[in-house]
Amino acid sequence: MSPNDDLPRSSHRTAGGESASNPPGSPFPLGATALSTGTQFAVHAPEADGVEVCLIDPDGGERRVELTTRTFGVRHAFVPGVRPGDRYGFRAHGRWDPHSGRRFNGSKILLDPAARQVTGVFGDPSALLAYEDDPFGAPSSRDSLGHLPLGVVRAADDHVGRPARPEVPWDRTVLYELHVGSFTARNPAVPQHLRGTYLGLAEPAVLEHLARIGITSVELLPVHTTFTEPGVRARGMRNHWGYSTGAYFAPDPRFAAVPGAEVDEFRTMVDALHAAGIEVILDVVYNHTCESAVDGPSISWRGLDAPGYYLLDGRGSDVDLTGCGNTLDSASPAVVRMVCDSLRYWVEDVGVDGFRFDLASTLGRPGGWRFDSRAPLLTAIATDPVLARVKLIAERGTPPVPAIRSVTSEWPGRNGTIAIATRSGASGRASTASANWPRAWPVRKISSRAADACRGRRSTSSPRTTGSPPAIWCPTSENTTRPTAKRTGTGPTTTPRSTTASRGRATIRPSSRPGDATSGHYWQP
């Protein structure tokens, strides 16, 4: 028996005790790991002169403990007596040189990029700015404690007794894109206190409805913890859609029926959907963060290692490939590790079945250059033995993604089939693609089997050669309009739509307008 046989499948958590592979003070896993006599803290900050973990008591008092050990650019230490439920943040000290991207400021408390749970609300947005008046001027001396949500130490998750994954074959997959908060917000069959929550989505009436209309997989619009942009907050609005990620490991607390119970409630929702034979796919945003451009707040990544997490130009400003102020550098080892750790956590610890990657083409532009299907991040995802077994879906982007190859040979239905994302229309039934769909929105190298599946016919074509892994294809740039299924007629027709919709803002995404029968997201795996 190996030393790790009694540990959970995920390396992010221990079973409540130390082991030879994860001793107290180990640099990995990153984040806060609760052990039997305290908590192990580790954070990526390779260029910081010093990093402190800030332990916040219920009254708001702060106790700072220096992370004295540095390994592979990770600052880490074991702090005795810190228990699950304790709140914490980090302070990083170092050089203030904004023209090179170094923006260390010990006056700013920072959210752990690997926090598994987040609590608290924002205060004065100006307190989160690391600079005084000019992003390239003097640093701010104002303490941001009390103005930023904090991380929460989590106990090890229990993996015993969870339902089996549905593992729906690709050729039988029907994806339904929905917003957790909106889907049950006014559903009279859901108890009032559960509407708009994770538990609301797990209600029997909701599960019965999804099964009745033929849904095999739900794709949840972003459920990572989301922070509304300061400019949107200033207008008295909030970010509804969730494309402004503040924590890649923590479920959004907005959708918790009981404040602070969002992690357990999310797992309960996943288990309920799995028990009903429905997969859970997450819409994930690993192309940018909530910190906006260089004049934005210092919430987490910017204060720990801005040059390591973000694409920066020669003057220290953010390179904006996403239209949201910043771009995560998909060639950076720090980003590759963070994204893969996050994806594995959601698969192994939480139990989801796949991911839809927002602006997937950005993940394949190392250093901001042209798209490369062999980019470090895409390669890491495709070759990871855990991630290669789940559904991976690429959103079309600019430029479009030619191909993201994934090792999915263990999945049934691997021979070039097509996955169709639908939303129920006025009739309450799932929409289906008509025979003209491949012509309405071209896809690259669509196989005859995929075309037959799209037309609703049984394929007679020979399967793909054994041993050749399928590719996840994205639509070509031949057609820049999104097809929309009309409420009348026999099939969907093409209606022009802008592909430059506001992302991560408090505006309605075009593909989610009331009355649309489909979401407009179609992929060929």
CATH architecture of the domain at 31-152: Sandwich
3D shape: globular
Regarding quaternary structure, what we see is single chain
CATH topology assignment of the domain at 31-152? Immunoglobulin-like
Question: What's the level 1 CATH class of the domain at 31-152?
Answer: Mainly Beta
Give the helix proportion (percent range): 10-25%
Strand content: 15-25%
Largest sheet: 7 strands, mixed
Helical segment count: 10
In CATH, what is the homologous superfamily of the domain at 31-152? Immunoglobulins
- Structural class of the helix and strand makeup? alpha+beta
Radius of gyration: 23 Å
What is the count of β-strands?
24
Which consecutive residue ranges, at least 5 long each, have pLDDT under 50? 1-17, 405-525
Strand order of the largest sheet: 18-17-16-13-12-20-24
End-to-end Cα distance, whole Å, is 39 Å
Write structural notes for this entry.
The radius of gyration is 23 Å and the shape is globular. Strand 17, helix 8 (376-383) and strand 18 (391-394) form a beta-alpha-beta unit. The protein has a domain at 31-152: Immunoglobulin-like (Sandwich). With 525 residues, it is of the alpha+beta class. Helix 7 (333-350) runs parallel beside helix 8. The strands form seven sheets. It has a seven-stranded mixed beta sheet with strand order 18-17-16-13-12-20-24. It contains ten helices and 24 strands.
